[in-house]
Design goal:
two-stranded antiparallel ribbon, 228 residues, 11% helix, single chain, mainly beta, 10-stranded antiparallel barrel, 3 helices
Length: 228
C-alpha cells in the first residue's frame, strides 16, 4: 500500500521501576495535545501546491481508550483520502510506540516509532514485498492549536525519503495564536493530565476530562483517579 498514511497516556511518580501499565500511561501522555477534534486540509507534501494537484478536506478525532489496566489512543478520520482510522500503543519492553492504520479498504498496516526531543513522532515500517521504507511523522504546533502529519517513502537501496503527502489541521474551536503567550491552557483532565474540556461530577464535586474515553474511565471508577 504505497500511499497508505501511516498516522493512530495519568502521570504518576514511582520509586524504582514503574509497573508496565503505569509506564504505558506515562509514555502515551505525550500525545495529549493530539486529543480533540481537528479540521484538516490535505495535499501533496511540497512547498507550493499546483491547482491541478489532488487536495481534500478531512476531520480527525483523537481520543483515549481504556480496558482494565490497558490504555491506548485512537483516532478516526472522516472524508480522508488515505486513512480511515488508527490507534497508537506504547510497548514498555522496547520503549517505543506502535501505530496501526486502517485504509479506506479496511486493510491494516503497523508501524513502530519514537518521539524526538522536539516533540515529533516518527513511525516507520518496511514493506515486505518491495523493501520500501514507509514513514509517518506527526506533530503539533502553535501551542497545540495546529496538528500536522505527513507521509514519505524511501525505496530500497536509497538513503533519502521522498515526500508524498501531508495534512495540516486546526483544532476545532481554537484560533491560531490564541494560546501563544497566554500561559494558561485551562483545566487539567483528571484521568490523563491533558486539557480538560468536558465536566464530570462525583459526590458534589466537578472534575474535568479531555475526551469521551476519559469520561467513561472516570465514571467507571472515580475513586481510582481522584486518589491518584
Amino acid at each position: 500500500m504505497r500511499y497508505l498514511l501511516a498516522t493512530t497516556i495519568i502521570v504518576c511518580s514511582w520509586a524504582g521501576t514503574a509497573p508496565a501499565d503505569d509506564a504505558r500511561l506515562e509514555a502515551l501522555q505525550k500525545f495529549n495535545d493530539f486529543i480533540g477534534e481537528w479540521k484538516g486540509n490535505g495535499g501533496p507534501d511540497k512547498p507550493k501546491v499546483d491547482p491541478r494537484d489532488p487536495v481534500w478536506k478531512e476531520s480527525i478525532r483523537w481520543s483515549w481508550k481504556f480496558q482494565g489496566d490497558d490504555s491506548w489512543l485512537t483516532f478516526n478520520v472522516k472524508d480522508g483520502k488515505h486513512i480511515k482510522w488508527g490507534e497508537v500503543r506504547y510497548r514498555p519492553a522496547t520503549s517505543d510506540y506502535e501505530l496501526t492504520l486502517s485504509d479506506l479498504k479496511d486493510q491494516k498496516t503497523t508501524f513502530t516509532g519514537r518521539r524526538d526531543d522536539k516533540g515529533y513522532f516518527t513511525f516507520e515500517r518496511t514493506d515486505p514485498g518491495s523493501g520500501e521504507t514507509q514513514q509517518v511523522v506527526m506533530n503539533t504546533a502553535a501551542e497545540g492549536v495546529r496538528f500536522v502529519y505527513r507521509y514519505a517513502v524511501k525505496p530500497k537501496g536509497r538513503t533519502v525519503y521522498t515526500k508524498v503527502w501531508q495534512v495540516q489541521a486546526g483544532k476545532e474551536g481554537e484560533a491560531l495564536g490564541a494560546k501563544q503567550g497566554s500561559g494558561n491552557k485551562g483545566p487539567e483532565c483528571i484521568v490523563t493530565g491533558g486539557l480538560g474540556t468536558i465536566t464530570v461530577s462525583y459526590k458534589g464535586q466537578t472534575y474535568y476530562v479531555c475526551c469521551t474515553g476519559c469520561k467513561d474511565a472516570f465514571e467507571s471508577n472515580p475513586e481510582k483517579y481522584i486518589k491518584k
